[in-house]
Specification:
- By secondary structure, the chain is mostly beta strands.
- It folds into 2 domains: about 80 residues, Alpha-Beta Plaits (2-Layer Sandwich), CATH 3.30.70.580; about 160 residues, Pseudouridine synthase (2-Layer Sandwich).
Length: about 250
């Protein structure tokens, strides 16, 4: 049985801490559990509408509407810059790779200031060979010079230790895999994100830490502490999540 942490609930809104590895919504495999099905079953919900989505491997704050009217109001604002989404990512720094070679570890200093990645991304099918030497086809959202969708993310370094760091990401647009591909293109792939060149880990080390949005004259704000496996990976990399920022 999947154990879920309810972060906030009233008659119209529901915020939960999504676990890593659980799809937000049902997949083609009806036997595979998904967050929407688990919520309906455990909370006996008749209506449940997703406001936004998180990748299967991403944990953290996820907001749902409990009736159609609330869903309509929220959907009008979720892609606007009146919403603030804050993610935490555990990354390792890499040197740019020459054509045909894999990126190499880098030891240069981490950025001291806020930086922005702004480009256009285009979905493409690629072959992926993971750490277990198994090959499969995956959809990647990669930078492109023509076409694609505009994507903007602000980043800052919260903690660093050698080649590893805790990075805060604030996406200003909502493209597929946006944070993952923006960090990879900055030579800072997320741990566990082998599709984008990250080192192997127990899971994708990306966590939706905070969500803030306007709601009927109020400013709503929800936080989700990173789960144990995220904290343990940070500690193993010399990063104290209660420590000082860069």
């Amino acid at each position: 049985m999947v154990s879920l942490q309810i972060l906030f609930k009233n008659d119209e809104l529901l915020a939960v801490a999504k676990p890593s590895g659980l799809p937000s919504q049902g997949t083609r495999d009806p036997r595979r559990p998904s967050l929407d099905v688990v919520l309906r079953q455990q909370l006996s919900l008749e209506e449940l509408y997703p406001v936004h989505r998180l990748d299967v491997g991403t944990s953290g704050v996820m907001l749902w509407a409990l009736n159609a009217e609330a869903a309509r109001e929220l959907s009008e604002g979720v892609q606007s810059r009146s919403w603030t989404k804050v993610y935490w990512a555990l990354v390792t720094r890499q040197s740019p790779a020459s054509p045909g070679s894999r990126p190499k570890p880098a030891s240069s200093a981490w950025p001291a200031d806020l930086w922005r990645v702004e480009n256009h991304l285009k979905l493409t099918r690629s072959s992926l060979r993971d750490s277990k030497k198994s090959a499969r086809k995956v959809s990647l959202n990669l930078p492109t010079r023509s076409g694609g969708q505009k994507a903007i993310t602000d980043f800052r370094c919260l903690l660093s230790s050698g080649r590893s760091a805790l990075i805060e990401a604030r996406p200003l647009t909502g493209r597929t895999h946006q944070i993952r591909t923006h960090l990879a293109s900055s030579h800072m792939p997320i741990l566990g994100d082998e599709a984008y060149g990250g080192e192997p880990a127990s899971r994708l080390m990306l966590h939706a830490y905070q969500l803030r949005w306007p709601w009927r004259g109020q400013l709503m704000e929800i936080f989700a502490a990173p789960p144990e496996e995220f904290q343990l990976e940070a500690e193993a990399r010399g990063l104290d999540l209660n420590g000082k920022s860069c």
